Automatic annotation (TrEMBL):
Its EC number is 6.3.5.7. The lineage of its organism: Bacteria, Bacillati, Actinomycetota, Actinomycetes, Geodermatophilales. Belongs to the amidase family. GatA subfamily. This is Glutamyl-tRNA(Gln) amidotransferase subunit A. Residues 1-449 form the Amidase domain. It comes from Geodermatophilus nigrescens. It catalyses: L-glutamyl-tRNA(Gln) + L-glutamine + ATP + H2O = L-glutaminyl-tRNA(Gln) + L-glutamate + ADP + phosphate + H(+). GO terms for biological process: translation. One of its GO terms (cellular component) is glutamyl-tRNA(Gln) amidotransferase complex. The gene is gatA. HAMAP family: GatA. Gene3D superfamilies: Amidase signature (AS) domain.
Length: 457
């Protein structure tokens, strides 16, 4: 199985650009080890998996899509990588991504863009676009991504995959290169709901090395996927979010996406679910709140990249002092979007502006969380919306327009800010390109996402 995928990578990845690093010999040696152990065939043993390059992997180059980490080989592995190792999976390689996970198209990678296997002139989504292209293009059966504001769900949606952002705190962030720590969450990307569920159970669960890790059992998502696959949703109460593509909030949504969404809702009803419209008045403020909170946390997290401890160092020839070397390293090591976020975040956090920007954004975050609580306490089990307002757009179409790029996150940001689980599952095509249905559930009720997704699949 590993060899078959390495052959696919050799044949296709020149065009796709899904991977930043592949070591055939190491992967084949690992596969041979699993074969010899006799474990292959139990659970995920022997299954190759691709990891987004945001996860540190001991001895294996890890860049987070940035020049500033070029050549860095971490001395330790992320908890999720260790858990996958323990489950007997084979690491196929590290996948391309927007630099430090900032973006929605993978065009912000410092190395190269990734293409959508459905149409090579289109983006594969982002920031986990290397993972989505690898799985959708059959260059990996499974991949891990990370989702801060939509970076698992949106690339899954635009490449026809299942992608799940677990409850914040339910999958370890240890060894995940931090973008926005209060939002970052790792999760599975796969071609079926059951594949995603199996991968989720392998990586989830408490980790004492992550201070925000929840000490609770992993939800039984495999069982939920099995239950949902019967197609019976009798008794399930579904809320259609008015503010996310519902009546009166359709600006920016493609008609084909709205049509597929309406059909998916009809399908849920046909499966026995009770569907009603729900209003979440603060969801419309998620975008501005996110683009203050995430850059603020990024400006703090990225301070560690100063050219001394990791990756590249520029201008250290004895003629400059340490501040000049740090400045030169950052000037050349960071790309334009990363610089934009650092500047935005530093500004929003500065004395005198904190209350006006960051403080306000945190209040909006609380209001969004309350909208979810009101909906779930008010009698719905899950909320649904389109995952992305549009299908995959053409490469280059939004690179010069950051606000157009940010608009791709319209539907995914509320669940990110509230820390609740959300899954994207394919729900048909528009103009020959995949559309995703998003299913959101209360914290720690990830199993509901899988149940509904399996019924739609
Ligand atoms: N597109 C969003 C951003 O650029 C989300 C990215 C993510 O989830 N990592 O910040």
């Amino acid at each position: 199985v590993t060899r078959a995928h390495l052959d696919r990578i050799a044949a296709e990845d020149g065009a796709l650009g899904a991977y930043l690093f592949v070591d055939d010999d190491a992967a084949l040696a690992r596969a041979a080890e699993i074969d010899a152990s006799g474990a292959a065939g139990t659970g995920l043993a022997g299954i190759p998996v691709a990891l987004k390059d945001v996860f540190v992997t001991e001895g294996v180059p890890t860049t987070s899509g940035s020049r500033i980490l070029e050549g860095w080989r971490p001395p330790y592995s992320a908890t999720v990588a260790t858990r996958l190792q323990e489950a007997g999976t084979v690491l196929l390689g590290k996948t391309n991504m927007d630099e430090f996970a900032m973006g929605s198209s993978t065009e912000n990678s410092a190395y190269r863009p990734t293409r959508n296997p459905w149409d090579h002139d289109r983006i594969p989504g982002g920031s986990s676009g290397g993972s989505s292209a690898a799985v959708a293009g059959r260059l990996a059966p499974l991949a891990l991504g990370t989702d801060t504001g939509g970076s698992i769900r949106q690339p899954a949606a635009v490449t026809g995959l299942v992608g799940h952002k677990p409850t914040y705190g339910s999958v370890s962030r240890y060894g995940l290169i931090a973008f926005s720590s209060s939002l970052d969450q790792a999760g599975p990307m796969a071609r079926t709901v059951m594949d995603a569920a199996l991968l989720h159970e392998a990586i989830g669960g408490h980790d004492p090395r992550d201070s925000t890790s929840i000490d609770a059992p992993v939800p039984t998502v495999v069982e939920a996927a099995r239950r949902g696959a019967t197609g019976d949703l009798a008794g399930l109460r579904v809320g259609v979010v008015r503010e996310l593509g519902g009546e009166g909030a359709r600006e920016g949504y493609e008609q084909g996406v709205l049509d597929r969404f309406a059909e998916a809702v009809a399908l849920l009803e046909a499966a026995g679910a009770e569907v009603r419209e729900v209003t979440c008045p603060s969801f419309g403020l998620a975008l501005p709140a996110y683009y203050l909170i995430a850059p603020s946390e990024a400006s703090s997290n990225l301070a560690r990249f100063e050219g001394m401890r990791f990756g590249i160092r520029v201008g250290d020839d004895g003629s400059r002092d340490v501040d000049e070397v740090m400045a030169l390293t950052r000037e050349q090591g960071f790309g334009p979007e990363v610089k934009r976020r650092i500047i935005l975040g530093t500004y929003a956090l500065s004395a005198g502006y904190y209350d006006a920007y960051y403080g306000q954004a945190q209040k909006v975050r609380t209001l969004i969380t309350r909208d979810f609580t009101a909906a779930f306490d008010g009698g719905v089990d899950v909320l649904v919306s389109p995952t992305s307002p549009t299908v995959a757009w053409s490469i280059g179409a939004r690179v010069d327009d950051p606000l157009a790029m940010y608009a791709a996150d319209l539907c995914t940001l509320p669940a990110s800010l509230a820390g609740v689980p959300a899954i994207s599952v394919p729900c048909g095509l528009s103009d020959g390109l995949p559309v995703g249905l998003q299913v959101m559930a209360p914290a720690l009720a990830d199993d509901r996402c899988y149940r509904v997704a399996a019924a739609v699949e």
